[in-house]
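Predict the 3D structure for this chain.
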Amino acid sequence: MLLDNRTLLFSLMLISGLMALSMAVVVRKDERDGLSKWSAAISLETLAWLLIALRGSITDVLSITVANIIMASAQGLKLAAIYEYRRLHCPRWQYLVPVTLAVVLFGGLPYNAVTERLVLGSLFYCFQLSLMLRVLHSDRESHTGHAWGLIFYSFWAMMAMLLARGTVAAFTHIEFASTPTSIAPNPIQLGVFICIMSFALMGSLGFVLMIKERSDREIRTLAMTDMLTKIFNRRAFMIQAEKELAAAERSGLPLSFLMIDIDHFKQVNDQYGHAAGDAALVGIADVLSANLRKQDTLGRYGGEEFCALLPGTDAAGAMALAEKLRVEVAMTRVHLQETSLALTISVGISVWERERGSSDSRTLLEAADQALYQAKSRGRNRCVMELKVAPALRKADLANISAA
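Done. Predicted structure below.
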């Protein structure tokens, strides 16, 4: 199969142009995700490739100097797009300095200095790619997805291709690395064009998919997180409870449930207002989160009620941790507007153990809720164990434990 340079350049322009058009169509003006800048960058690349394709039919100023300045500007826009995607400020020098260097480099070199232009040009574009790779590498959040690798390694591959092209230009025949208008390209030229087409396409697809993956993560977070306290919402907590219970039944290890209620919370809302009530909820959630273990799960069940899962924790351990939470909350003053308030909590506890047999999370939460009701009816600010577990705890002679 015979491929010529003009056909490859036309294919490259067609792919770039259609991709820029597609991105421009789906760009949302109210969304600062970098897609509009990336679309503009692809448009500039298309224009640059057009000028390069017309080499020999237009002046060298346009096909060499202007084309490379436009290409450098396109890479600067890509860098700005990556910064915008990460919601970071892009230092001006990172896109202004390369464009200035492009003007000096490609405008200052004689047009017949092909070797120097190819070698220095390859190093120049490697520098721009390294700036983009640096920003991508520091994006730890996107590392969890697959799209990040697509764009990151595409840029690395493009750098390797440019370095190989510069090396060939410096140490072998110049025609192997240049961009002539002949219809019989050699393998080096052919490889350069195919690599540019492939990696440019993969990089752009990677950027679009990276935006999608982040949107998916944010949607999952919104669906699973209580927006006020930033902990699991009821739905997410129940899903996690089923997973933990299934794991406990497989391993035979105990699993404890805590149902936590803020005492006299309605009075806080009535006396200080709902904004103060929200601050109280956030403050209590922070105290609970700070005193639970890494393997524990905290969620807001609704209103002023919280739930906690304690994997691998028996009745004695659950009571000890519940008491710790109760004491820590009582010792912490929650700041409400211009004053601070000491709040207390009541805790109901239920425990799944192997002897209990098969169960489900709702049954165990109902048992914890019944224990919580007993704690509130006995004066609040206390921890109460569910009835099925309490007799065994009495036999173990555990102190300071109330039974529902």
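The chain is about 65% helix and 10% strand.
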